[in-house]
Amino acid sequence: MSMLPGPDAFKAAIFFIVILLTLLPATTSSSSDGKQHNKRPPNVVILFADNLAYDDVGTFQTNNNRSSNDSSSRTPRTDTLATQGLKLLHWNSPAVLCSASRAALLTGKYPIRTGVYPRVFEPDAQHGLLANETTIADYLQQEGYATKLVGKWHLGSRPGYLPIDRGFDEWFGIPYHMSGGSLDGHVCGKERDPNGTLWLPLFDGRDIVEQPVDLTNLAPRYVQEAREFILEHASQQQPFFLYMAFSHVHQLCAPRFAECQWASSHFSRGGGGGKEGHSFRAEFGDAVEEMDWILGGVMDALDEAGSEVSDDTLVIFTSDNGPWTAEQSCAGSKGPFKGTWLKEHVSDDCTACPSEYKPSPLPGQKRRCIYPGTNYEVMGVSCGEDSGLGSAWEANARVPAIVRWKGGGVPEGQTSSEMVSTLDVLPTVLSMIGKDIPIGSEVDGIDVTDVFLGQAQSSSSSLPLREGEDNQNETSRRRSERALFFWRDGFKTGPLPAPFGRFDVVAMKIGWYKLWFWTKSSHYNADEEVYHDPPLIFDVLNDPAEAYPLDPDKHDDLIRHALHLMSEHKASIEWSAPLTLARDPKYLPCVNVESGCRTRPLPLDLDGGGDSIDQAEER
């Protein structure tokens, strides 16, 4: 007698299987490797601050382990974000200036590969990020994402170099830094704006919609643009990529040094309806608070879109660079990253001035700086103190960073000390949505998904695993062997015009070890670069101030390994010509030449009640 089931039994089995399949969820969650499997990819939100120091964020301040409800913190919403995700304590900026940092974020490449060096793109730049570079927005757009930039671009302001030309469907913001042009109530000096037509523009897509931009309501407009974008695409169930590039906390242009920061009406010193009237004048702390408020508005929009959208959004918060130290009260704090060795080894006679000011000492006024052609004067700082923006010292290299993805496995309320770079954002995001980077793309960043998911195996060793040692997976192995390289200009001599000199690796990191080959203060101060052979070595985990060099004789293996990695790194580079040097006034953004590059008439009190440049010259 046959033991095979009959037709009725087969039908019953098939019916049972169909019922089971209908009961299974239509999608699956991300697996333990953080990659998406048969699921709509997560939304991506990148929150990118401008010159926000590590110590400017309450939860990162080393003198106080702040909580999200700490009333003394300037950044309560950012602090809350940290409790909902992973706080990264060793996140590194990939470049010493902001155009290069932003290019690295979007491409995953060092600036020497993209040509975004040695300086930033100025308003009259001939070039920008080249079209042959594939940005994270390009990749995500190809995967069906809606893409939008709100805020600062700084990678070219001419047609053909705008965000719309580099993978973004939409853009609402300014083309460069906040000191890039004049405002009604804050006019740039003749060093920056000799013709009086350099008005800071606001773009919507390819069009200038406001020139100069009205700062009294810019922050609320940033929030509204982000909110509408999130809600629109969440309602359409389309994955979205929002790049919120804050215009905060970069200072305004010189020479109105006493009014160097800004905030919209509800955070400004004018207070909208206050005794000073409608104003954008602010102190540095006000700018930090408003940046935090904008961040909160973005997070509120995600919540408004529903918990499913909010939970399935990968949020990355960090800063392009650290504080512009010479700007003093107009900029942030170096915190524990004091650059002590530099201070102790640079002549105290050297003075670093705020942007566009020049040293002009007088008896009893050693640090006096003046704005050329005027009587405006401020006090500078010792060059040895100037170890923030424009340098590779830890105050500029180490930036705050937080990652949150509630539905994707990012741990909540934890910290990581793994070495990570902004370079890693592109390869990691693509990995987490299940997309591979095309072969031959020369991306310098690496996939740090295991770090984001709290699965990285920290090691105190700065050298790669040797044969016979406990092996890790390929990603962890590559990370244990990686180095970060810090490129900068400002050398006394070289193929580039003064004051740039040449563009070279001045320092590198392997784990928590930092090796210095050339030391110098920020930007183009008068102190000359100093070569170190053997290199200076600091353990920046235990010595974040970079005060106590380690004995090189006890670190021979480390030095040999570092020199080998640097040689390999430089050999891998096909040097790209510097794109940031070519400039011409005809490239300045201008809504209408006949209107003087303005969308509204000149106000009667152009300088907002303060002295004009001409009045200052007469004093």
TrEMBL record:
Sulfatase N-terminal domain location: 42-434
Signal peptide positions on this chain: 1-29
Matches recorded under Pfam families: Sulfatase, Sulfatase_C
InterPro entries noted in UniProt: Alkaline_phosphatase_core_sf (IPR017850), Sulfatase (IPR050738), Sulfatase_CS (IPR024607), Sulfatase_N (IPR000917)
Record's keyword annotation contains Hydrolase: yes
UniProt keyword list: Calcium, Hydrolase, Metal-binding, Signal
Record EC number: 3.1.6.4
Biased composition range(s): Low complexity: 62-78
Any GO molecular function: metal ion binding
Ranges where the record places region Disordered: 59-78
Annotated family: Belongs to the sulfatase family.
Protein name as catalogued: N-acetylgalactosamine-6-sulfatase
